[in-house]
Amino acid sequence: MVRVGSKNQALDTVARVLAVACLIAVIFITFKLFNGADTPFLAFSVIGAAVVHFSNRPRVIEATITTLLASGLGIAYIGGRGAFGQYPASGLVGTVAFIGLASILVLGWKACRSTEALRPLLLATFCPALVILTNLALAAIIQFQPHVFDLFLYRFDGLLGVQTSFVAGRWFAASPFLANLCFLVYSALPLAELLVFLLFVRGQRMPGNPLVLFIVTGIAGFVFYQVCPATGPVHVFGAEFPNYPPPALPLQSVLLDDVPRNAIPSLHSAWALLIWWSLRYSKNWMRWLATGFLALTLLATLGLGEHYLIDLVVAAPFSVAAMAACTRQHRKAIAACALVLGWLLYLRFGLPIFTLSPLGAWMAVLVTVIVSILLAGTKNLSVWGRIPSSSGLLTRLTPPAPPN
Predict the structure, then answer these.
(1) In a 10 Å sphere around its CB, with 0-12 CB exposed, 13-18 middle and 19+ buried, how is residue 141 labelled?
(2) Residue ranges, the chain, pLDDT below 70
(3) Rounded Cα gap, residues 184 and 207, in angstroms
(4) Does the reported pTM lie above 0.85?
(5) What is the DSSP string of 174-186?
(6) Residue 357: what are its φ and ψ, rounded to 5°?
(7) Beta-strand (E) ranges in 228-364?
(8) How many contiguous H segments (helices) and E segments (strands) does the chain have?
(9) For residue range 85-95, what is the model confidence (pLDDT) as tens digits?
(10) CA angle (12, 131, 286) in 5-degree steps
(11) What is the DSSP letter of 357?
(12) CA 268, CA 189: separation in Å to the nearest integer?
């Protein structure tokens, strides 16, 4: 029995070491291949690893080793001709990202030695892994969706009387500070999601488990992307954005290569809204911070040319559907999903046949927002769960299912 137990323990150690090595290798190789310091979403997601590591208050020697490793990684990155990019605060973001990479190495070493140490490593690597998988999935689907329907979304926004994304884009052109601030907030979404989950791990009351919520939102959003593939005005109109909105254009699909089909529903808007929603029971300053993050994210989605206004409108019922699904309120989830699907089908197939009047378009938008608010405000959408924390490690308590 002793020999069998020792053999199983050895196999467990080998399997754990191999799993940790593969996970870390994927993140590091991706960071190098895609110039992680030049890719803000990836850089911010890696910064989250440093937050996880240092939030557990490592000993001084461990923090020192992490800092030295970060310096070595930075030197190696520069020596390998890695780029830091030209986006706002790219030097600072890239530098802190190397601390995140070093934290992954240190947490990985600890995980190789102890099964208990796997949990903080998985939490630290969750956001980088999610960013990598998301981008791979979006890139892989392009060949199956060669045409985009941006002109349909552009036409609907025109029915509202103003091309909101072009207006916001001109605001950004006139105010570099506003543009840079919104860009950083927009790019920091992975880090914001991780911070929310850390609060949940430490017992913050929330409507549902944010980790499950963010994953469900991402998967469902990817599925909905395929109904009405679109990319955003900056990718379709190029140099005409934001100063020269084209006049009425024919409703036809556009052949476009190498651009992700991730416009409608706007997942950036949905995730920011769900972050705001998840912090509804938190302290006042957290709620205000979440409100500011939501407002700047919504403005960024338009001003950066990544979305049309209708993308943000459809994100409202989509967010409600995600929250309802994660709190086991299936009827509300189905109702909200039906509203999302109805919009997507109308924009792709119905708009050429039946074009709403400007008043009708505004009424449809207002009804969508009001219905979303009513669904979100119902009492049994406020189910919440607490989970105990143990040295910042991940545990989960599933809230009970409310009656439908």
Answers:
(1) middle
(2) 1-16, 18-19, 22-23, 26, 28-30, 32-37, 379-404
(3) 27
(4) yes
(5) H-HHHHHHHHHHH
(6) -75, 165
(7) 254-255
(8) 16, 2
(9) 778 888 888 88
(10) 100
(11) P
(12) 8
